[in-house]
Amino acid sequence: MTADGKPETIGLIGLGLVGTAIAEHLLEAGYGVIGFDIDPARGKALAKLGGRAVSGPLEVADGADRVILSLLTTEVVCQVVEGDGGLLQAAGPPHTIIDTTTGTPDETMALAGRLEARGIAFLDATISGSSQQIRDRQALFMVGGAAAAYAACEDLLRVITDKAMHVGPSGSGSKAKLASNLILGLNRLVLAEGLVFADRLGLDLEAFLDLLRQSPAYSRAVDVKGDKMVKGDFTPQARVSQHDKDLEIILACAEAVGQELPLAQLHHQILQDLMAGGDGDLDCSAVIEAIRRKQTGSGK
Fold this sequence. Notes:
single chain; about 300 residues; alpha/beta; Rossmann fold; N-(1-d-carboxylethyl)-l-norvaline Dehydrogenase, domain 2; 8-stranded mixed β-sheet
């Protein structure tokens, strides 16, 4: 609530899969939502949910003291915040920016420092989990930034998910997301390869998934992506292209610290093959199709 007892309006920039899931929770909890996306269709979708779509970041800043960003890269984040028509050009810029973007840690820390110098709190509040897991309140916020800023925004984070952790100073959320995404993506890839292998051996895959849930081979990927892989339902919850972008950042960070990531490199090549085949907008569970093609030499 604001000082005059009215529901607080939260700004939201980026109304894709994750941004829309966040908007749904905020609206359901009674917050107002003022949002912007470069795709007008996404703004119209927000309006249908009960939010207010506007034509740019400036209008978002004018309507909200706390703004959540859900964008593709840190470069886009910097443009939205500091560029022409960005949040900082508003007459009264927001006092807090919560960035859920999976971005580059060094650039994230630099942006946080520039904003802190202007008295604006910045949290890199990355999310572990798909848009569906956000809807189910099963995603995890991994938040970097000042402890006081985290405490001031925990009310908002808890509206979106039951799980939020402050993991350290600015940049820590981005670092934690990259490391967890490395593990998560490989879990998906191993599950896909195992399912294809089980299929080739003649096992019933639905029964095999039930078996995996009771075995030491279990991981959350079995629950989150197993059915999608078995049914061939690649409706996006987290796109191939998004994880491909994340892997590029992961590999660049690994190179910078002198670490080789052979499994991540293989995964990146598999995602690149999917992208080259026009499958970048499919859900990440589509890695099973790439494995199938390697096994059979066909699209099956």
